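Example A, followed by Example B.
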Amino acid sequence: MKKILAALLIILSFATFALAANGWDSTVMWAANRVRIAEDGAKVLHAYANLKAGEKEEFGLWKQLWTTKGAERAKIAMTLVNTMFPDGNPGKWEQVKDLTGPDFRRPRQFMAIDALFAAVQELSANENTIWGAALLLQQFGESAYGKVMFVEETPAEVKAIIDNVVAKTGLSGDWTVRKIRGKLPFLPKYEGKLSHSIAESRRYIYLDNYGCITSFGEYGWDRDKGLLYEIFEDSGGRGGKFR
């Protein structure tokens, strides 16, 4: 009996040591990844800070996100990231304002989000630049509301992009996608006018006159179909812009 107990103690000792070693290894790996995201990621983003795509107009650049790939797409996406987000920081996405495009019905806020995920996708395709992708997501993650709007419910393509970066870089934080919803691009197409009561019944997300997400406003976003409607007042006296 004593021999059995001694053997069990030895086994438990080895198991405890192994668990401690694994825990230590995980801690070291986590710390190393944080350093790489902070330092190597910053170097990657800095390298793109002075690179500019040929097209100067934002909407023209945004359209090129869907016709290019690889290094060219990364340069276009990072040009938009650096010019649209204040200080080139995606965490400040709520400060991006105004409507643009040929019809001035395209919210720049959504255009910037498209550029962000395009940049993350292209940078994450290379083991040397993926740390820049992780840093972009880390910055964006500083906005809890940004995660709620564009991560917790997001298209399948975006979930795949995020999952890839988290798996390869150990990016910390909660990047759980709770519902696959909508499609890329995030930038919606203007579809005309719609009554406030219909927008309410369909649970559209409101945008204000500057194209920014708000609790109520002049526009309604159908995120499932990627459409944008101008909200008009119902006969009963309720309208998006007056509510």
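Example B, a separate protein, is given below in the same form.
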Amino acid sequence: MNPSNKKPIIKYWIIFFILLISITACSTTRKSSLYNTDKEDVPVKPSHPITLYADEIENIILLWGNQEDKNKEITGSDFYLFSELLSSAVYNAYWNESGIMFKMVAPDYTVSVSYKNKSPEENDLAMIWKEANRLKFRNIWYNLPEEQGKKLYRLLDKY
């Protein structure tokens, strides 16, 4: 074999391996986090922060820690107002996505939301802090707009 023919053959093999590597690296069959459809692996950001349908709620109870005799049920028009105010909360990307650990203080209000036709395990707990109008609902952090926060605090203070 002629030595001058070896250089082009080696050159073609190198190009072949580069193409092979690039094709396998860009394979569409490989699982990508962008296109992953496994619900457990992909965190879902709420598109609408909190949706509470008052007609699906059985009761809303303001909890007072270990003092069950002080627990108060939110009733009447306050029931609908609470649902409306909680639905005005805005997703807090910093607290949810930063991965930073926060030192917490006890919430100013803890509210249990029970639903019709659902088991007690499916109840929701809303923890509300007056500081910075912070709210944790379904383990997701939200902020209440200032005016809605004030209305919510006045509502809960009645009980």
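On Example B: The mean pLDDT is 80.
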